[in-house]
Amino acid sequence: MYIEDFNDVFYMERALELAKEGIGKTKTNPLVGCVIVKDEKIIGEGAHLKFGDNHAEVNAILDAKNKGEDIKGATLYVNLEPCSHTGKTPPCANRIVEEGIKRVVIGTLDPFPKVSGKGIKILEDAGISVTEGLLEEECLNLNERFFTYLKNNRPFVVLKSGMSLDGKIATESGESKWITSEFSRAHSHELRGQLDAIMVGIGTVLADNPSLNVRHGKYKNNPIRIITDSKLRIPLDAKVLNGDFDSIAILATTENCDKNKLEKIKEMKNVEVLICKDKDSRVDLIDLMEKLKDYDISSILLEGGRTLNAEMLKNNLVDKFYFFIAPILLGSKGFSAIGDLEIKDLKDSIKIKDMTCEKLFDDIIVTGRCD
Q: Which positions are annotated as active-site residues?
């Protein structure tokens, strides 16, 4: 069993920090950072910064070479197993061998079938010493989106909702601005910038006319906007279709939609329409998740109303949640964050694990994962 060395931990922590530079930009690729060390000195650093661009290991090697450093005999730290296949870029494991690196420290194996274990084998067959499993839990948590995407063959879905202490997202009249504080709303924009897409139902669009863009925070990438609208009730002048965004809007509808409006929407800039299967007069959400594969979407922030939230939960399509809870009560006539889950017995309740709770000024943030 490997006993963690202080220096190894230090350099892997640095690799994890570098990996975060790719948040919101790597799509279906993982977040990876890499550090190259020689004679107890960092001689090269790199991260995977954009989908389709160089992987972290290559960027770290190039960084070292640009500084005039000799890489041969160095130790390389990377939070995810180096790739062993040719995809959008050449295999990193082979490049590490070619550069004469003598030791590689890996945070966790890559679950992708074309890589898993194969990258390590290439390194070991070349006589390189490999240490694996360093800060494994931290490495797994950083790439929970990537691992879930591979495991479930669908995007990693995070349900986000701002609510009162008694679980309401709006008053009886529909008023919802603003239940939570400006700090909670800013935090919500941080989440938007970290994920590939944001998803709402047509009810939210009709009630709030949201832009669904990023206006605050460190991560400025506007997510793809997904709207479920089985009959195409969306107004043609809705903000979500007409903003000056650097991403597209996807309208998920059915064959029962307004055909005249469909033709007009098809002519709109940066708007795409997905005709999905119909399920109980709504968009079949499982079919929608399948169709979203064509858009390299690995993660979705679900900001739906009670109906969409409930349907996603009933279809086992929610992986994680963030509940922003304000210190107010709205009573039984307010709109609930989650609609009818059709649960009659406690044994059928949706189980939550890894739950955490933290205070954000006057509000509370509760996070957890759906079991």
A: 57
